[in-house]
Amino acid sequence: MKRKVLFKSTAFILSTLLLLSGCGEENGNGTVEILNVSYDPTRELYQEFNEAFAKYWKEEQGQEVKIHQSHGGSGSQARSVIDGLEADVVTLALAYDIDAIGNQDLLNSDWIERLDDNSAPYTSTIVFLVRKDNPKGIKDWDDLTKKDISVVTSNPKTSGGARWNYLAAWGYGLEKFDNDEEKTKEFVQSIYKNVEVLDSGARGSTTTFVEKGLGDVLISWENEAFLSLKEFGEDEFEIIAPSTSILAEPSVAVVDSVVDERGTEEVAEAYLNYLYTVEGQEIAAKNYFRPRNVDVVAKYKDQFPEIKLFTIDEVFGSWKEAHETHFKDGGVFDSFYE
Amino acid sequence: MATDLVKNEGKHIHKPTAVKKETNWTKRVLITVMFLYLSIFLLVPLVYIFVKAFEQGSGVYFAAITNSDALDAIKLTLLVTLITVPLNTVFGIAAAWLITRFQFKGKQLLLSLIELPFAVSPVIAGLVLVLFFGPRGVMGPLFSELGIKILFSTPGIVIATMFVTLPFVARELIPVMQAQGKAEEEAAISLGASGWQMFVRVTLPNIKWGLLYGMILCNARAIGEFGAVSVISGRIRGMTNTMPLHVEILYNEYQFSAAFAVASLMSLLAILTLTIKAWIEWRAEKQQTA
């Protein structure tokens, strides 16, 4: 019995040592490690991009770089960074979530101007995913308000993608009703009345529609919709492009307070800049994000449907205003469920 | 009484009375319902996990569980368990001893406190730890001053798991030690044994089956804990990803077979745990009758 106790305490001490040694990682043998905290639908994109960047960095600087990834709902990922998750870079679904990190003084509030194109190296939009041959004949946003349509989307309170979904529908409504706010509100509300499952994250909604087979239409990131086609085959689903949608700009930023402390500023900045290179843009396009670089846009032109796109600033002023009006507690979205 | 009934029925010795017939009938219905119920809710899903796991062939299965992210998740889960179980065992023995061997004010309060983790949702436990150790929390600034990372790293996951599994050992030991009484221990002391000798030679042999049982339950929960850990982990693959979190990640990546492969590995661990548990119960019973 004594031996057992001894064994246990040794095991405990050993494991504690192991644990403590695990804390001081950073530079093992000249390898630099950075953490990219991202949102759900970029898993596949960054898997490929990280490999390419590591190769590039090795060639340029002769240094090994290991990039760690964390994925989740955009809002909750921002929350984790605020709570102390040491992200060197954040690549989230919308500027608002990065602003939230900036509000805690973890990064400079002018972050959005530091990189080109509003610090959004790739864009996407919102489209519909329907079952093969479009049995319900869904063509545009109007069809989502019909009585017998079951819609799948996620909760705009927690999901970045869902905010884009909501704002895309709103923008279409404003156009349709000549900027009549009341009619637009009724219109968007009637879409949300048809929502059968309101998941907390975009990826959750996709699995609900695709794997669990619920709903007639999924309002989805364009890149998520394409990915579903790729994963499950084109004989199961179809992408429907609405006439008008929103230009979704997922933003990226270096987290100043973290890179300053860890001394990783150079590699973190290079990492984000590499997203803007032709290689980075190609990887984004291959993963169904719309590139910014003109040459890459031309090359992948046929891949993306033509949709009339409006930006958030054009229709809503800014993310802050959109949030205050629509998503804040007691905002327009809450009033749908009163 | 109950065992007598069973024995007699098995041997068909005496004539069944009307009452017996009735209980017999009730028993059969209950057995059928129980087995149906358990099959639908436990057995079928369990089998389904393995079916799904091997859906794309054993190649995909073994690739999924030997993938470096999966191995890191398994290692982290085992490390967390290896720290949590011994610590909670020591705590559990101390708490059970205090409660069953001493009279003091606030005993009931202590008992309720020990059971608190059963009552609190794990998600809330995780959130409380975030508030406590976070950058603006009570302890957060102190630890970051010392250069120790708690949240979103292994220590945080260990603390969350310890919180959730805290009651298991104490809960198992308290009734055992209460039933045992302190007569044997007092005899040992009066015969000149030191406190440690008494504990190792008298107390420990008496409680060992209860102790092992508690440790096994603690172990099972430590491996499987999702809620509290998911709040505090940060989900960095290869670093702060435990097995249950890894299953969720794979599922969200459309790697359904891989997700079920890791899930099946966890199910195997659970089955192993249950087998050991059954064996311990059998040994304990045997020892009691002997």
TrEMBL record, chain A:
- GO MF annotation list: molecular carrier activity; sulfur compound binding
Primary localization: periplasm
Q: Where in the cell is it found?
A: Periplasm
Quote the cellular component terms of the Gene Ontology held in the record. periplasmic space
Name the InterPro entries for this protein.
Sulphate/thiosulphate_BS (IPR034408), Thiosulph/SO4-bd (IPR005669)
Show which residues constitute the signal peptide: none
Is Cytoplasm among this UniProt entry's keywords?
Answer: no
Q: Which UniProt keywords apply?
A: Periplasm, Signal, Transport
- Name one process (GO BP) from the record: sulfate transmembrane transport
> Which PANTHER family does the protein's record reference?
SULFATE-BINDING PROTEIN
UniProt similarity note = Belongs to the prokaryotic sulfate-binding protein family.
Q: List the protein's name.
A: Sulfate transport system substrate-binding protein
Automatic annotation (TrEMBL), chain B:
Molecular function in Gene Ontology: ABC-type sulfate transporter activity
Q: Enumerate the subcellular locations listed in this protein's record, separating them with semicolons.
A: Cell inner membrane
This protein's GO CC annotations: plasma membrane
Which key words tag this protein in UniProt? Cell inner membrane, Cell membrane, Membrane, Sulfate transport, Transmembrane, Transmembrane helix, Transport
Indicate the transmembrane segments per the record: 29-51, 76-98, 110-134, 146-170, 211-236, 256-280
Report whether Nucleus shows up as a keyword of the record. Answer: no
Task: Spell out the Gene3D superfamilies in the cross-references.
Answer: MetI-like
Q: Where is the ABC transmembrane type-1 domain?
A: 74-277
Origin, by domain of life?
Answer: Bacteria
- Bilayer topology annotation: Multi-pass membrane protein
Q: Which InterPro entries match?
A: CysW_permease (IPR011866), MetI-like (IPR000515), MetI-like_sf (IPR035906), Sulph_transpt2 (IPR005667)
Q: How does it assemble?
A: The complex is composed of two ATP-binding proteins (CysA), two transmembrane proteins (CysT and CysW) and a solute-binding protein (CysP).
Q: What does this protein do?
A: Part of the ABC transporter complex CysAWTP (TC 3.A.1.6.1) involved in sulfate/thiosulfate import. Probably responsible for the translocation of the substrate across the membrane.
Name this polypeptide is given: Sulfate transport system permease protein CysW
